[in-house]
Specification:
This protein is of the alpha/beta class and 244 residues long. It contains 7 helices and 14 strands. The structure holds zinc ion (2 copies). Residues 59, 61, 134, 138, 155 line the site of one zinc ion. Keywords: Hydrolase, Zinc.
């Protein structure tokens, strides 16, 4: 499977960029993990909006789902223009029924619920979910395809079961919302020290730091993580691609 970073900013996008969004592809199947602000504009560097088969939302905070409305409008406008489109489904949890109810749209976007009790097949991918520690219900995801595994923490403060869930992934996408002295766990986020601990326990083949703060030099996050995790650690940037 191929993963491309579309957006990686915490909270709001910097100029011309996007908050959380990752394009996952295999065998012509195209899926977005989260769909934050700026994702729909920026994903068009890599594919057509109408080629997206699915979007899987970790939670309903703006920086992870703002562009859902944009996606719905793009679908209805393209339908009106007679564009040849695949079916599209948005997957979300139903812990917030009102937010879930807004995913489906006018026969151009379907919705489907996921939960942490059972795995879910989406195209060529098998998803399992783990509820995180965050101010609103949020789910980390483990995605398997053939013999490869990606784990995405989504938004969460550190807890040891998250490290168990992430064990031995080929790629661990970890949110890293602050430097080691930033107190972010009270807001349901991890700083670089928390991510170092998580990765030390999970031992992924590659670690990707994402959901990055709007300050400082992000290279410092890498060196802070490296105090506890000695494996490959990369910083998210738009267009960064992993072929697993
Ligand atoms: Zn959040
Ligand atoms: Zn977030």
């Amino acid at each position: 499977m191929k993963l491309t970073v579309v957006g990686y900013w915490h909270g709001y996008p910097e100029k011309g960029e996007a908050t959380s969004g990752y394009l996952l592809e295999q065998d012509q199947f195209k899926l977005l993990l989260d769909c934050g602000s700026g994702v729909l504009s920026n994903v068009q560097h890599y594919c057509q909006i109408t080629d997206l088969d699915a979007i899987v939302l970790s939670h309903y905070h703006h920086d992870h789902q703002t562009d859902i409305g944009t996606f719905q409008y793009a679908r209805i406008i393209n339908k009106g223009m007679g564009t040849n489109m695949k079916e599209a489904t948005i997957y979300g949890h139903r812990d917030d029924p009102k937010a879930f109810a807004k995913l489906e749209y006018q026969n151009v976007v379907n919705s489907q619920e996921y939960n942490d009790q059972s795995s879910l097949t989406i195209g060529p991918f098998t998803f399992t979910f783990k509820k995180t520690q965050h101010p609103v219900p949020c789910y980390a995801m483990k995605i398997k395809s053939q013999d490869k595994t990606i784990v995405y923490t989504a938004d969460s403060s550190y807890f040891s079961e998250l490290a168990d869930f992430a064990k031995e992934a080929d790629l661990l996408i970890a949110e890293c919302s602050g430097y080691e002295t930033d107190q972010v766990s009270q807001y349901g986020h991890m700083n670089s020290r928390d991510v170092g601990l998580l990765a030390n326990q999970a031992q992924p083949a590659q670690l990707l730091l994402s959901h990055l703060p709007h300050k400082g030099d992000h290279k410092q996050l890498q060196s802070e993580v490296a105090k506890q995790f000695f494996g490959v650690t990369l910083l998210a940037r738009a267009g960064l691609t992993f072929n697993l």
